[in-house]
Amino acid sequence: IEEIQEIVTFAKKQGKLTILNMNRLFHEYELEELKTYIQFFLTLEIDYYICSDLAVLYIFMELGKLNQLIYHARTMITATEEANYWKNKGLHSVFVSNELTLEDIYAIATTKSIAIEAYGHHQIFSSKRDLVSLYFTQSNNSNRKPKFTKYLMQEELRNEKYPILENHHGTVIYSAYKYAILEELDKIKDL
């Protein structure tokens, strides 16, 4: 909390926007505490919040702050109608799917309410479960390292290696490749 306060204060002094990434799945038992945290973060005057869990969206709706929310449903926003649906609900913007062609992204960008992941590994799977720990337990594998260790996972009949990470929130698997549309951004930056 203190680090977030410091970062927000510093960014505001620099005239920069602040965006807090709350993009994970929350357990039912965490929702009251989550609401308390969100109410606190709103006092810091953070500009926008990124989320994928609809529970976060609901809390922002209850607080009348949907206009500060950026919905990041990974691969779900694939059409102009979907982006407009969330825009009409009052959200600031939505992340468009990384699996689309540039032409499709351009078409959806005309809604003027999208965000784009421009670089990095794309999250392709998440679970609240500790899947890496479960694997090591079931396989009696002695190479287990502590949580927060990034592993590479390879399917039996494929060459690609997928980064997989387990932490106290569960397990996330990322794409085997890094997604990059840095050069293409010039084509849609005006939208």
Commentary on this structure:
α5 links the parallel β4 and β5 (114-115). α2 (31-43) packs across α3. The chain contains seven helices and nine strands. The chain is 34% helix and 25% strand. Strands 1-2-3-4-5 form a five-stranded parallel β-sheet, with helices on one face. A four-stranded antiparallel β-sheet has the order 6-9-8-7, with helices on one face. The chain is globular, with a radius of gyration of 19 Å. With 191 residues, the protein is an alpha/beta fold.
Question: Which secondary structure elements does this structure contain, and how are they paired or packed?
Answer:
Blueprint: H1 2-13, E1 19-21, H2 31-43, E2 48-51, H3 54-62, E3 69-71, H4 80-89, E4 93-95, H5 102-109, E5 114-115, E6 119-127, H6 131-139, E7 150-154, E8 161-167, E9 170-180, H7 185-188
Parallel strand pairs: 1-2, 2-3, 3-4, 4-5
Antiparallel strand pairs: 6-9, 7-8, 8-9
Could you tell me how far the N terminus lies from the C terminus, measured between alpha carbons in angstroms? 35 Å
**Based on CA inertia axes, which overall geometry fits?**
globular
Helix content: 25-40%
Structural class call reads alpha/beta
- Biggest pleated-sheet summary: 5 strands, parallel
Global mean pLDDT: 89
**What's the Cα radius of gyration?**
19 Å
Poorly predicted regions are none
Number of strands: 9
Q: Per DSSP, what share of the residues sits in E-state strands of 2 or more residues?
A: 15-25%
Number of helices, counting only DSSP H or I runs of 4 residues or more: 7
The helix/strand series, from N terminus to C terminus, equals: HEHEHEHEHEEHEEEH
Instruction: Order the strands across the largest sheet as they lie in space.
Output: 1-2-3-4-5
Give me the oligomer status. single chain
